[in-house]
């Protein structure tokens, strides 16, 4: 049975933990709002870009002259996985869910006899993957100094990835990130960026009036594909940013609530022990008086 | 009064403009073009240059670097990789941007020694950038 003093110190320490988690939750809430706004602001650009590239790809694709970023290298032997996580922890399952998805993909690809290379963005993912797959890591991009993720950061990552593609380091690139659904739900997502894939975007544009292209369709396409890759990475970074803050906010909310419960329990225990001590003292006094 | 069309200027980070314009002068890769309402549907890439939008309230100038413009009969959408209102571009910022292109040109010269294509592209971008500076008096 812990002494009264012990209980008191524990209550105090849990209280200060609660203060910290509460503060972190509020900071995350404020950052989440900003991250969501940023994600929202980037959406029109990304959507339009995907639509136009999709339309172009649909009309140019298939021909021999289509750029390598679209057509690929013709094989899928070597895979590059770009795993994007946070620089910080204390955000619930945010980092581990991405790492888990990436690990599952690595296991799947290795089982198929493919070569896997991993490029990590964000410290936490690197730490988790290094344990099992240290030999697969080919690079790391550090964003810990970056306060607000900007387009330049995405451009730097894209440049790194495309330089590796140009030197023939890999055939297929996939990015891993958390898609932001709501504060309590972020979906770990894998998205192939090289060679480019476009889902439904192609039909939207193709159905409309035919466009004049200046310069030629091929020239525009090969101009836009690298931008498209950058845009996809940028979108993923923004989604990831919002997801991170959302995950942190709900994790810290839980932590705050748990701390509250713990304080209640400890306080009850404290009061009970104090009562027991008082009763004990009374018994001692009474029995002492009776003995006289 | 000329007919109006919907004009949007978006960069990856924000939407800079969304308004009804009567005329948009776009620095296309193949030369400047002016889009007005009922223009034939066109998609063009951009070179670094000055984008001018004329609307009922006056005229807005933007600096755009890279990207493309989608023009249709009732809508013009400019997706610039980088876009800034003219007023936000200071002499220092502009010098910085030129320096960036100069570096890209240097790197291109080193990496593609025997391929003129990328080097010429970089040189063209650099000269566009310099020309832009003259154009806006910086």
Give a concise summary.
The complex is a heterodimer of chains A (292) and B (138). Chain A is α/β, with parallel strands linked by helices and 292 residues long. Helices cover 64% and strands 15% of the residues of chain A.
Please give a structural write-up.
The complex is a heterodimer of chains A (292) and B (138). A five-stranded mixed beta sheet of chain A has the order 3-2-1-4-5, with helices on both faces. Chain A has one domain: 3-Layer(aba) Sandwich (Pyruvate Kinase, Chain: A, domain 1). Chain A has 292 residues and is of the alpha/beta class. In chain A, β1 (78-84), α3 and β2 form a beta-alpha-beta unit. In chain A, 35% of the residues are buried. Chain A has helices spanning 4-60, 68-71, 94-111, 123-133, 151-166, 201-207, 217-291, and strands at 78-84, 115-121, 137-141, 172-182, 185-194, 212-214. Chain B has 138 residues and is of the alpha+beta class. In chain B, strands 1-2-5-6-7 form a five-stranded mixed barrel. In chain B, β5 (49-55) and β6 form a beta hairpin. In chain B, α1 (91-111) runs antiparallel to α2. The radius of gyration of chain B is 16 Å and the shape is globular. Chain B starts with a strand and ends with a helix. β6 of chain A pairs parallel with β4 of chain B, so a sheet runs across the interface.
